[in-house]
Amino acid sequence: xxxxxxxxxxxxxxxxxxxxxxxxxxxxxxxxxxxxxxxxxxxxxxxxxxxxxxxxxxxxxxxxxxxxxxxxxxxxxxxxxxxxxxxxxxxxxxxxxxxxxxxxxxxxxxxxxxxxxxxxxxxxxxxxxxxxxxxxxxxxxxxxxxxxxxxxxxxxxxxxxxxxxxxxxxxxxxxxxxxxxxxxxxxxxxxxxxxxxxxxxxxxxxxxxxxxxxxxxxxxxxxxxxxxxxxxxxxxxxxxxxxxxxxxxxxxxxxxxxxxxxxxxxxxxxxxxxxxxxxxxxxxxxxxxxxxxxxxxxxxxxxxxxxxxxxxxxxxxxxxxxxxxxxxxxxxxxxxxxxxxxxxxxxxxxxxxxxxxxxxxxxxxxxxxxxxxxxxxxxxxxxxxxxxxxxxxxxxxxxxxxxxxxxxxxxxxxxxxxxxxxxxxxxxxxxxxxxxxxxxxxxxxxxxxxxxxxxxxxxxxxxxxxxxxxxxxxxxxxxxxxxxxxxxxxxxxxxxxxxxxxxxxxxxxxxxxxxxxxxxxxxxxxxxxxxxxxxxxxxxxxxxxxxxxxxxxxxxxxxxxxxxxxxxxxxxxxxxxxxxxxxxxxxxxxxxxxxxxxxxxxxxxxxxxxxxxxxxxxxxxxxxxxxxxxxxxxxxxxxxxxxxxxxxxxxxxxxxxxxxx
Amino acid sequence: xxxxxxxxxxxxxxxxxxxxxxxxxxxxxxxxxxxxxxxxxxxxxxxxxxxxxxxxxxxxxxxxxxxxxxxxxxxxxxxxxxxxxxxxxxxxxxxxxxxxxxxxxxxxxxxxxxxxxxxxxxxxxxxxxxxxxxxxxxxxxxxxxxxxxxxxxxxxxxxxxxxxxxxxxxxxxxxxxxxxxxxxxxxxxxxxxxxxxxxxxxxxxxxxxxxxxxxxxxxxxxxxxxxxxxxxxxxxxxxxxxxxxxxxxxxxxxxxxxxxxxxxxxxxxxxxxxxxxxxxxxxxxxxxxxxxxxxxxxxxxxxxxxxxxxxxxxxxxxxxxxxxxxxxxxxxxxxxxxxxxxxxxxxxxxx
Lengths: 661, 351
Ligand code: SF4
Description:
The structure holds 2 protein chains of 2 kinds.
Chain A (H helix, E strand, L loop, with lengths): L2 E5 L8 E7 L2 E7 L17 H5 L9 E4 L2 E4 L2 H13 L9 E5 L5 H14 L5 E3 L3 H14 L16 E5 L3 H4 L1 H12 L3 E6 L4 H5 L2 E4 L5 H14 L5 H7 E2 L1 H8 L4 H8 L3 H13 L3 E6 L7 H13 L9 E5 L5 H6 L16 H11 L20 E5 L9 H5 L3 E6 L11 E4 L8 E4 L4 E5 L12 H11 L9 H11 L8 H4 L5 E2 L16 E2 L18 E6 L16 H12 L4 E4 L1 H7 L6 E5 L4 E8 L7 E5 L3 H10 L1 H4 L7 E7 L1
Parallel strand pairs in A: 6-7, 6-14, 8-9, 8-12, 9-10, 11-20, 12-13, 14-15, 15-16, 21-25, 22-24
Antiparallel strand pairs in A: 1-2, 2-3, 4-5, 4-16, 17-18, 18-19, 21-26, 22-25, 23-24, 23-26
Helix pairs in contact in A: 2-17, 3-17, 3-18, 4-13, 8-11, 8-12, 8-13
Chain B lengths: L1 E4 L4 H8 L3 E7 L6 E5 L18 H4 L3 E10 L4 E6 L6 E6 L1 H14 L7 H8 L1 E6 L10 H4 L11 E5 L3 E6 L2 H9 L3 E2 L2 H21 L7 H10 L4 H9 L6 H5 L6 E4 L2 E3 L2 E8 L20 H13 L1 H7 L9 H5 L6 H13 L1
Parallel strand pairs in B: 2-6, 6-7, 7-8
Antiparallel strand pairs in B: 1-9, 1-10, 2-3, 4-5, 4-13, 8-9, 11-13, 12-13
Helix pairs in contact in B: 8-14, 9-11
The structure holds iron/sulfur cluster.
Iron/sulfur cluster (SF4) binds next to α6 of chain A.
């Protein structure tokens, strides 16, 4: 049969698909009917993945920069060039060498890159380039429960009778999860959305609260207070399984209705009802974004604490569920792609974990935590970048100043312009590899076709680099790599390629559909809340609150989508309408500003300004504005001025003034 | 009319494979999913397999296909165009009658109008079709509402009907007759014809108990869809559930929309690719200059159902565009497969 089973490679949902493979070509795609997550569905991205896989825009040969120009080279030459250059900066703690990994790489490829960085080049400067949002979620959940991943699962959505969606445009970001929520609501579950914008899922919900930007945590704290005030907490559950409730509940006492109404712009009665629905339901889940516009730790902490008080964690159909935007974002953290982490969220400062790694790898690991590229503040001299997905090169100033940049990837993109060495690798359809979706489901995507012209799969290339640098690695296949991962990673115990052959793979830990609260080694603790409940305020000078998010087809400035034809057309459809990007404002604000759709305006903040066209829509409330995070100028210029603000994730709200041009 | 023993029915497929690329319903071992695909070995084909997840549309109208390549000669200012037609003879074996109806709709779209689509024509011209009567429906079927089953009425070269220990083989063309004669099949008589009629009647009677997923009494709705007398709220309800994935178009046996792109393959060379398209996409109806007559998603949705269910469209296909296979309902991330839309509209009419 020419249709070969695989996993969609775009978002963290991890839908099952069948690729129509004929010879060396991918000629089509079809959904997998019996797949446990997607059950025969795909979204617009998934339905067009074959266009990406058959693009001519691939890197097909290694390249080395000579006299300013990239010229063809052999793998041996290019690998030697990379190793020689990194060797110049290698020390016991190689602070000048950095690795920028990709949340699209398979677990095996990421693991080996992590091993290369730490054990061969003594550098702990390894990180993902974006999505700090997911790290926040994992930190909060791990500290509180010991489980650094989704506490519930997608497979149990149909078992929840209260579903809360907070600040995620889920039918756009992870459409098939949105579909599951919609189906559950049609079968009778209560679906509730809290968002700054009137999204599609809001329209499909039984209840929708349109909240003021930056005030999610106030709403969550207030709902928690309602549970306390109205004696709706699950007292037995709290006693038996949790600690820290008293302390947390004390911090809520000061909240008063007027303050909440003022900050959130909501009628507190509605919040009260939502809290009651949650408490009185038998099982409940909450979904929030864990990608680029994910929440800050405090907001996640409040969400978690609220659900804990209601006893909606660790039970069937329950869970606090961060949703990953990119296909292997969860897997990347599982593989230790962070300056301070080893695999499975083991800390670099955990002595026994380090010992295990040292023994297995026969090395003595450098245990000084590294820095991510965003934090490196000009210290890095040499950088290895893998599969960088963004056309718009962020941190472009730092990168262009570096002495040496290597790029490893399958597809051409702008990053190549900064590279001194370029190394092609096979696409995900051309080698075996596993990917971990947002519900901790590890799935095997099998090799379906041969890579072009001797192009190596990443796991082989990384091993080749390690070998050239003097290490002795011995992997015959990605299955061997997984065996080593499992040895070193307690929460991956039991996973092996022979078990992953079956459709749907296996969730860590041990196939668990949810956090196992009975067998937890310690009580679940309430999340600590660091800051107060202040919200960004508009002023007379800057009267609008600007929110930042993703639009349907621009999903993380996705370079990959631009290598397709149908999604590319969709992308262009909006870009042609709004070539400078757009800022969405309400009809009322448009009237006040005396502008119509597609008029050019200037957005002025205390730190900078940019031009964009307006999109007039009733999706946003008056006195708020929304920009899609994708157009070149916006990202490189305007938002860079707001780097610190952006770190706050979904709370990244900028007070601005909009003026007609 | 001929007969063939059940144990020998695959001989027809084997015979066809001598001359044709053989396609039929194959159950994938790993995923247990039935796909209508090319069979390297006739034995892979399973006549009893459930309705294939993918209809045979892709054999005639591939998902993503190169239809020509061209090269510009700068010096002589000449373009060298090479069409890329696939005229290999293909046999579709074990087609269900809804899917055959889909092929007929495609014929009328690609061949039945002013322009004949050469690419399609080449896929189609050397084709042999063996259809298979459904002696029982599947859960999602509603072909009895769209007059496209459970038995094929036209368009086949041979039609098979399971009569217990043997198959009735009806020839629908000279080609079919020739093959049956060549294979020396036994002649059937009126009693076998009667037996087929009984089998079809029984199949229809089973719809009530088996085909419970979907009911689409489309005749009532066609009038409304044609005249546009449907409350906007119904379209809005439908539009709200559309995540714009395109799946309904892609799995539809009669959807024919496509897009064309010309990826560059060398400095002065390009391919012309044809790829499935869907009216649910925003860019699909956008015109040059930025105007989009169907910007809101509910407008694009109503267009699809107009295409499947209006009289004006039916004139083109000589029948409704919907063939009652139920696939769109199965792949839809909302709850707006065609049969459900029909239900929503009927509900509104009743009010
Ligand atoms: S929801 Fe995500 S995984 Fe599923 S088809 Fe769409 S992009 Fe692929």
